[in-house]
Amino acid sequence: MRRPVDPASEAAILLGAGRAILLQLARPEVGYGVARHSAFAENPMARLHGTLMYVYAVLAGTPDDRRIAQGFVRRMHAPVRGGDDGGVPAYDARDPELQLWVAATLYDTAILVHGRVLGHLPEDRADALYQRYAALGTALEVPPEAWPADRAAFRRYFEEASGRLRVDATIRAQADALWAATKAPRWVRVLMPLNRFVTAALLPPEVREQYGMRWTIREERRADLLWRGLGVVYPLLPARLRTWPERYYLARLRRGGKAGRPGARRTPH
């Protein structure tokens, strides 16, 4: 009998990376902070790599892994503040409310993709996974009591917070940079149309519309076929392949930690 894979370690969850990023950017305080204080437009893959190193460090790493990842994220967040001028919302990357939103998009996306590809978790395992994801926020500035108490409370929070999402030209330009991926390896650029399609399939319709992403009944049918196919093929993959990204990003974090900065040494993408 195969040993079950930790749901937080499933590679399939990475199918939702684009969704999580676009939901984060659609919160104006996050989107403008990224647009004004990062190289996202030139190298959006760097944000993805940094996020995944942090996620795997918190959910599956050692105490040293978490310490390295926390320190890196805090240093990156420290200068990201400003706005409240010319119609730009005030933002501060250390704001617990914004960090809660970022952590919430990661959890909501993970559980959505898991359900599409592997089915819904039993209630006890779903509750345990939910509590583990709280650490993505509380490892930084989010007070433990700010993470919704249970999954029902989370759903209410997420629906209310989603009502504050707004995508303007500045934020949409960040999404366009993600799809262009001009500094990403060639194989990433080749896969970007598929990534964009999967992201559109997973986004809430109102957010997808704000990003100007075309979606028709035909696309919906294609997405259904994709999820069905993955639901058949993916569970047959060996556990070592299904958990490869976790091992890769933890190794990348550790190499970078020795060099003084996660990801500081060039590694294969």
Automatic annotation (TrEMBL):
ER-bound oxygenase mpaB/mpaB'/Rubber oxygenase catalytic domain span: 10-228
InterPro entries for the chain: MPAB/Lcp_cat_dom
Protein known as: Oxygenase MpaB family protein
Origin organism lineage: Bacteria, Bacillati, Actinomycetota, Actinomycetes, Micrococcales
